[in-house]
Every structure is written in structure tokens, then in C-alpha cells.
Amino acid sequence: MLGCLEQMNESPEVTSGHVYVSHWPNPDLVMFENMAYKSLTDYNIPPSVIFASCSTEKLKMTLEKSHLSRFTSSPEILVGDPRCFEIGNEITKSKGNGLQVTLQSLPYFATVTDVTKLEKHECPPGYFIAPLRLHDAVLINTMWKFGGNPNSLKRFKNLISHSLTAGVYYQDTDQLVSWGLIAEYGCISMLHTLECHRRRGLAMAIVYHLTKTLLDRRRTVFCVIEEENENSRQLFCKMGFKIFSSDYVAFLYTSQS
Prior knowledge:
Blueprint: H1 2-10, E1 17-21, E2 29-34, H2 35-40, E3 48-52, H3 56-66, E4 77-80, H4 83-95, E5 99-105, E6 108-111, E7 127-130, H5 136-143, H6 150-162, E8 165-170, E9 175-182, E10 188-193, H7 202-216, E11 222-225, H8 230-239, E12 242-248, E13 250-256
Parallel strand pairs: 3-4
Antiparallel strand pairs: 1-2, 2-3, 4-13, 5-13, 6-11, 6-12, 7-8, 8-9, 9-10
């Protein structure tokens, strides 16, 4: 949640909206609705992030009143406590609106806890690193496994225009071959290298560049890693990130049942 708030402060075109806090201080339920994200897409409900340490009963009651009860069509997005998956399907089933909540991914967190352990990596000869260019959104949208649609293309164009990004380009052709960016939630995301340019340390150069930029701005450095993505886990561990393999975040969306 801190990453969302930091992103909202620095890139309001990407992340801005409403924050719900259960009580203060020490809230056990915080929900953020991203109005900036909604304005780009055909979502009816603002894509939301939920942090909860409260009981399942309290979480369900809050979602029924404030968010999931408004799900009437597809697609919609919710990110947060893994319990939202089962709760969401209970709510949509009781509403009888023909929707189901689908688990898109269930990654865990990794973060830099000791900056002295951050491993430095620069681009190898023949490559250079620079902010992503607007036309790069087409390639990124094509390569992302959840992309290939108008909503995701608009999203990437907006992130490239207003968020922190890094691309590695092949010097001879000026072609984008590796990339990463800071997503709406404030995390390092979309890390990818084209197959023919792998094993050259390009992804590590991207991670180091983004991490250093965030640290210089006194921002929180973290990423989310899908459990089956062993290559990402090894990369971030080698870079000096600490893995929290028991702290999961659910990326959920609605679809017609």
C-alpha cells in the first residue's frame, strides 16, 4: 500500500484516487481505488488494491458494502489479500449476476531490506539503457502474457508517459530488447528480455537502474514474483532482494461464468 501512495505522490496520472482506512492509527483494512487507471479503460469500477490484516468476516462485510457488490459486468480488477478470491466468488454468486472472480496470478513479495547488499549491474558493451519510448508500448503489450488488448495498450502508454521506466536498446539497431517499469502499485514490474538477448545481464541492469532511481527518490523498492517463475526469483535474490515467500498478493479479475 505504501508503494501505491508513493506512486500517487509522484505520478498522479498513473495512480490517483480514493483511500479507505478502517481506523487510525494502526488500521487493519486499507483500500485504494485507482481513478486514474479507470479513466484509461472500459472498467466500470476503479481497479483497487486492498491490504487487510482483519478477520475474514470484516473483510467480506467491507467488500460487500464498498466494492465487490458493484461488480455487475466484466472486466473488473482487484489486487490484494488472497482471501478476496473466495469472498469475491461468494458475493458474485449471491448476486446472481453471472460473474465469477478469477485468479489471474498469486505472486509473493520481494524487497530490498539492506541497500549495502544491492548488487551493481551496468549494461554490457553494445547496449545502452534509457527511458522507454511511447512506441515501445506496442511491443511490451504484445509480449506480456496478460496483454494484447486495448486496455493493456492504453495502460502501457500511460505508464511510459508518466511513470519510471527503463529499456535496454541494442546499439547497432536502436531496438528495444529488455525492459521494466514501475507499475501503478509502485513495484518493479513487466521485467522481460527478448529471447535472443538473454544471459547477458540485461534484466539485472534494468533492475539495478530502477532500484537505484527509487532509492535516490527515497521510495520503497519492491517487486512481486510469481511462484513458478524460478528465473525471476534467482535474479532478484542475486541482486540483493529479500524474498517473502509466505506473503502473497492476489491479482483478480471478473469474467462471465
